[in-house]
Write a structure and sequence with these properties.
Elements: H1 2-22, E1 23-26, E2 30-36, E3 39-44, E4 47-50, E5 56-63, E6 67-70, E7 74-77, E8 83-94, H2 97-102, H3 107-123, H4 128-133, H5 135-150, E9 155-166, H6 169-242, H7 246-256, H8 275-284, H9 302-307, H10 318-323, H11 327-355
Antiparallel strand pairs: 1-4, 2-3, 2-5, 6-8, 7-8, 8-9
């Protein structure tokens, strides 16, 4: 009984082993290439599949999802003989598992080498500045070339991106200096523009201020002139309404003369010809018979004559001598002459009253 049990167990184990070898479960988004006696037979789809044990074998297990491949930085010479290192990123997807397994030995290496050669061809026709600013154009041309070449390999290139372009260190320093100079230039331009706008606004404000001040001064002068005109008109009307006699006018005239010498810029004072006439008018104001009697000559004591050497002005000689003096001296002499004339007139008036 034991003799028959051993072959049965061995046969069962063999059957289980064959079943295991015959069943193949393919995951989603994967493809298995099956060969029968070394020749491609079929590509297994996702799910449960059966093969013939010992006759069929799974050669390649391929992932058909989109994958990313990053190449190592490759040196590339530009048109202006500068060596730059370019690092690319490739996005691809297997569309035909059979072609990917049998049309090319190593599709990743083939794609990498094709990318490098295509980049060298493209960058060799551009200078450094154009290379740095034409990434989109380089990506589009590179994708077109790779997609055309990898189509027969059962691979579709979805996207190619240049991850980095590294120029030499000296070129980097020169570019940094250039960018710094450009930034300084823009900053200087903006500062100058700001200064210009500030000066324009300041000048406009000053102009408006001067215009307003001038208008205010104009209005003030007009108002002052109107006030002075009204004051003069009222004074004139008052004088004519009250019928002021020549005596009062002559006395006010004498009071006004010393004020002419009080100005800071007055360096010359002229006594008008009507000065003596005004003095005579004031003199006659204090007595009716002052002109008919002789005027006593002013006497001075010897002591007083020695102490004061200033010559006394007569009625006729006063204007001529005062014209040759300075403004201050002329005003003093005019005031002194007026005081002498007034005192003489008062003396004559008292004498006349005593004789009566």
């Amino acid at each position: 009984m034991d003799f028959f049990l051993v072959p049965i167990i061995a046969a069962a184990i063999l059957v289980v082993f064959l079943v295991i070898m015959m069943v193949r479960i393919v995951p989603q988004a994967h493809r298995f290439n099956v060969e029968r006696f070394g020749r491609y037979r079929v590509t297994l789809q996702p799910g449960l599949n059966f093969i013939i044990p010992l006759a069929d074998r799974v050669r390649d297990k391929l992932d058909i999802r989109e994958q990313v491949f990053t190449s190592t930085p490759q040196p590339v010479i530009t048109e202006d003989n500068l060596v730059v290192h370019i690092d690319t990123v490739l996005y691809y997807q297997i569309t035909d598992p059979r072609a990917a397994a049998y049309e090319v030995a190593n599709y990743l290496q083939a794609i990498d080498q094709l990318t490098v050669t295509t980049l060298r061809n493209l960058i060799g026709t551009m200078d450094l500045e154009r290379t740095l600013t034409s990434r989109e154009a380089i990506n589009a041309q590179l994708r077109s070339v790779l997609d055309e070449a990898t189509g027969k390999w059962g691979i579709r290139v979805n996207r190619v991106e240049i991850k980095a372009i590294d120029p030499p260190g000296t070129i980097k320093e020169a570019m940094e200096k250039q960018m710094r100079a450009e930034r300084d230039k823009r900053a200087a331009i903006l500062h100058a523009e700001g200064e210009r706008q500030s000066r324009i606004l300041t000048a406009e404000g000053t102009r408006q201020q001067e215009i307003l001040l001038a208008q205010g001064e104009q209005q003030a002068r007009i108002l002052r002139a109107d006030g002075e005109a009204q004051a003069i008109e009222r004074v004139f009307q008052a004088v004519h309404a009250n019928d002021a006699d020549p005596k009062l006018l002559a006395y006010k005239y004498l009071e006004t003369l010393p004020a002419l010498a009080n100005g800071e810029n007055s360096t010359f004072f002229v006594i008008p010809g009507e000065f003596t006439e005004a003095i005579r008018t004031v003199t006659t104001a204090f007595g009716d018979h002052s002109e008919s009697k002789p005027r006593p000559e002013p006497t001075t004591s010897p002591d007083h004559a020695g102490a004061d050497d200033t010559p006394q002005l007569g009625r006729d000689e006063g204007p001529r001598q005062l014209e040759s003096m300075g403004s201050t001296q002329a005003a003093d002499e005019a005031a002194r002459s007026a005081e002498i004339a007034v005192s003489e007139a008062k003396a004559e008036a008292r004498a006349a009253q005593g004789g009566v």
